[in-house]
Design goal:
- The protein is an alpha/beta fold.
- It folds into four domains: 164 residues, no CATH class; 98 residues, Helix Hairpins (Orthogonal Bundle), CATH 1.10.287; 149 residues, NAD(P)-binding Rossmann-like Domain (Rossmann fold, 3-Layer(aba) Sandwich), CATH 3.40.50.720; 82 residues, 2-Layer Sandwich (Alpha-Beta Plaits), CATH 3.30.70.
- Strand 5, helix 19 and strand 6 form a beta-alpha-beta unit.
- Helix 11 crosses helix 12.
């Protein structure tokens, strides 16, 4: 009966949307750096840590207000206790483990064994509880039992909780963890030297009445001070043998110090690029609005230069280290990520809808642009994407990838650098014109032989009668784009007109071009 109730309750929790939503909420604000509220929780907890430590220091020689003491001993400890229990709760799913075991046993047509499930639950929870961060969290709660004055010193363990909330501490931990074998070797070497030197100096000096080394603890203290090259001078050897031991310990201490310094330098040198990348990602996540340029080649370099004139924030993403270095040299924020991989955007820790103005796929390779666009569309369906088109044979692939605007290289640079009807055309304007919220749009109209037969030149088109601005024409024969073509420019089948105007008028204009027959 009890087993049946446990199983029913586990299935209920596993299927409960409200329960799972609550659990995900607490996991997010405690563990997920992408959560916008997590930083406020971290700041609040750090403030509590400094308050409790300040109270501990104050009460050594001065009376502390009873209310403040109550707040430090009970309220802060209770908050840390709640945090510890929440972390223990969200660390793993008890109901999921039970359900998984039950379904496994049912599939094998055998009786459900809850003992195995509870054993796994205990193992999972215990593994978390003995992790360094969880142990520190637990020790930080102990001052709650303030009647045992000895436990008050565990308030200092709250300082170590800063490692959980401060990213700089986490970075330092990760850097040092990369050299854990080397640091272990150093620790073993230093421990052996300290042990041997402690015993030697004790044997050489303890029986000499003039010596200040009278106990093994004093010998151990002297060894630590000497090998660290601090040398307080309060304990010194007086015998020749003892001084010879001191010389050996000093030399060993210099070796330990040099080894330690080289380990720190090499660890930070090896992790320097990763640390810089983390800092860059953190800076990007703080940007309100920016353009994401995928690829940094000749055309995208020119586009970035023009956009920067308008003080637009630009992020460059490319999978080639050489191009990334060039982008950084040009003064842009650049990330060595592959635009065609989902992991690249997950690392960015950004809200695509809220932060990205537009994604510009500017690799001079249509296939690379297709991959980048497909990846972005798999993450977000609405963000505006513009892509270069290097070959007409790939236009359908780019359309299939969900790209909003496909442009030729000459057309793109021209849209940003030229002036139309007396006003600069920046990419921001192009983007706004493409917005679904506006009736004005930019479109491409293909020139057919029928249009050529009836409208031989640009001046014959009559676009002004439809309140349509002709931005330019892409000539099919020489694959060149001309802005503000003169009226005598001849039209040819295969050319493209780039026009801007109200959508309904563009449709009427296109219909007019395709149906009108010139009267000779």
């Amino acid at each position: 009966m009890l087993k049946h109730q446990i199983l029913e309750f586990a299935y209920y929790l596993d299927a409960s949307k409200s329960y799972q939503k609550s659990k995900h909420f607490f996991y997010s604000i405690l563990e997920d750096d992408k959560n916008r509220y997590k930083k406020y929780i971290d700041i609040f907890m750090i403030t509590l840590i400094f308050i409790s430590v300040s109270v501990l220091i104050r009460e050594v020689k001065f009376h502390v207000n009873d209310y403040l003491m109550f707040f430090s001993n009970y309220i802060i400890s209770f908050i840390f206790f709640v945090e510890y229990m929440l972390r223990l709760w969200v660390n793993s799913s008890v109901s999921k483990i039970i359900v998984t075991h039950a379904e496994h046993d049912t599939f094998l047509h055998r009786e459900v064994n809850l003992a195995k499930a509870f054993k796994q639950i205990l193992k999972v929870k215990l593994n978390y509880m003995i992790s360094p961060k969880a142990i520190i969290d637990l020790l930080a709660i102990l001052p709650f039992f303030h009647q045992l004055r000895l436990l008050r010193i565990f308030i200092l363990f709250r300082v170590f909780k800063l490692f959980r909330y401060a990213k700089s501490f986490q970075t330092l931990s990760s850097v040092l963890a990369a050299k854990k074998f080397e640091f272990l070797t150093l620790g073993i070497f230093a421990s052996v030297v300290i042990f041997v030197s402690s015993v030697l100096i004790y044997v050489m000096e303890a029986n000499n009445p003039a010596s200040s080394v009278n106990t093994l603890f004093q010998a151990f203290y002297w060894s630590i001070v000497t090998i660290s090259t601090v040398g307080y001078g309060d304990i010194t050897p007086v015998t020749a043998e003892g001084r010879f031991v001191a010389i050996l310990v000093i030399v060993a201490g210099m070796a330990v110090l040099a080894f330690t310094t080289s380990l720190f330098v090499s660890a930070f040198t090896e992790k320097l690029d990763e640390i810089r990348e983390m800092k860059t990602i953190e800076d990007v996540s703080k940007l309100k609005r920016f353009y994401l340029i995928c690829g940094y080649e000749k055309i995208s370099r020119e586009v970035a230069k023009k956009l920067s004139i308008k003080d637009s924030s630009i992020i460059i993403m490319d999978d080639d280290q050489g191009r990334i270095e060039m982008a950084k040299k040009d003064g842009y924020t650049a990330l060595h990520y592959n635009p065609g991989r989902v992991e690249s955007y997950e690392k960015l820790n950004i809200d695509i809808d809220r932060q990205i103005k537009a994604v510009l796929c500017l690799r001079e390779d249509d296939i690379e642009n297709v991959y980048a666009a497909l990846t972005i569309r798999s993450i977000n369906k609405d963000v505006f994407i513009l892509s270069l088109l290097m070959s007409d044979t790939n236009r359908k692939k780019l359309d299939f990838a969900g790209i909003d605007k496909i442009v030729y290289p000459q057309e793109l640079v021209g849209l940003i650098t030229k002036e139309i009807v007396g006003k600069p055309v920046a990419f921001e304007v192009i983007h706004e014109l493409r917005s679904e919220n506006l009736d004005v749009k930019i479109d491409e109209l293909s020139i057919t032989q029928h249009i050529v037969d009836n409208f031989p030149t640009v001046g014959d088109l009559g676009n002004k009668d439809f309140q349509i601005v002709l931005l330019g024409i892409n000539k099919y024969n020489n694959d060149r784009f001309f802005f503000n073509p003169i009226d005598t420019t001849l039209l040819e089948a295969g050319d493209y007109l780039l026009v801007v105007g109200y959508e309904i008028l563009i449709l009427e204009f296109e219909k007019y071009l395709r149906t009108r027959v010139r009267d000779d």
